[in-house]
Write a structure and sequence with these properties.
Largest sheet: 4 strands, antiparallel
Radius of gyration: 18 Å
CATH class of the largest domain: Mainly Beta
Shape: globular
Strand content: 15-25%
Number of domains: 2
Number of strands: 9
Length: about 240
């Protein structure tokens, strides 16, 4: 006898996205029939700066790094997108050209073709306001990070980045290495190693094989700069 696989409610299948879960139930149910689930391997480039955007991505429990690549091939992170948002805010601002590269962390996401999304924006009442609100929040976050990177210490920024990633992945285990953290903060690996060693000696983090684990969330919050609370608030996570 053939055993049929269990039928999964499409709403449940796409519930890994906090952004999608916040939509009214009737609107979400209309939207999910046009979404597909996709697994992104670690460090997969979803798109390069200047590419035409053909899909919009809603991460589930992982983050996508938005980065600008300089002439020496160095990628500098300008923001991260987690389950609270979507990759492709440019389309809500009237452009289908990517303003930054989007690099995925390993994980699942809900994906929709851009042409289909543009149709649904006219048909699903809550979708456009929600996507515009997130686009504004992400822009506010990018501006805040520019100030943060100019004024706050590496230790403060490292704690801010780790805490924000934890919130964006809805407190799943961090899949971030010291190399990842160095790239995200735009500093050399040696500087991050020293910072992580200090945090480890304080009992705030531990790490093995390069992967970082937060041991004392309260102490890390105290060690982070004020920008963590701001970003958590503006992104509503």
């Amino acid at each position: 006898m053939t055993v049929m696989p269990p039928i999964v409610d499409p709403v449940v299948a796409h519930s890994g996205s906090l952004f999608l879960r916040k939509l009214p139930a009737q609107d979400l149910r209309r939207l999910v029939t046009h979404l597909t689930l996709r697994e992104f391997p670690r460090e997969q480039v979803i798109r390069h700066e200047g590419d035409m955007i053909d899909i919009v991505v809603f991460p589930h429990g992982s983050v996508v790094s938005l980065a600008c690549v300089l002439s020496d091939s160095t990628a500098v992170e300008s923001a991260t997108v987690g389950s609270e948002g979507f990759v492709g805010v440019e389309v809500m601002l009237g452009s289908a050209i990517a303003t930054s590269s989007a690099i995925a962390q390993e994980g699942q996401a809900s994906v929709i073709a851009l042409d289909q999304l543009l149709l649904l924006l006219e048909q699903i009442p809550s979708l456009r306001p929600a996507m515009l609100l997130y686009a504004r929040s992400l822009l506010a976050g990018v501006m805040r990070l520019a100030a943060c990177n100019a004024r706050h210490s590496l230790k403060q920024r490292a704690c801010r980045r780790l805490l924000l990633t934890l919130a964006q992945t809805e407190h799943r285990p961090l899949m971030i290495t010291q190399k990842d953290l160095a790239n995200a903060l735009g500093v050399c690996r040696t500087s991050v190693n020293e910072t992580c060693k200090e945090l480890r000696q304080s009992g705030i983090i531990d790490y093995s094989r390069g992967h970082i684990q937060i041991l004392n969330l309260h102490a890390m919050t105290d060690a982070a700069c004020e920008c963590y609370a701001y970003l958590k608030s503006v992104l509503q996570i």
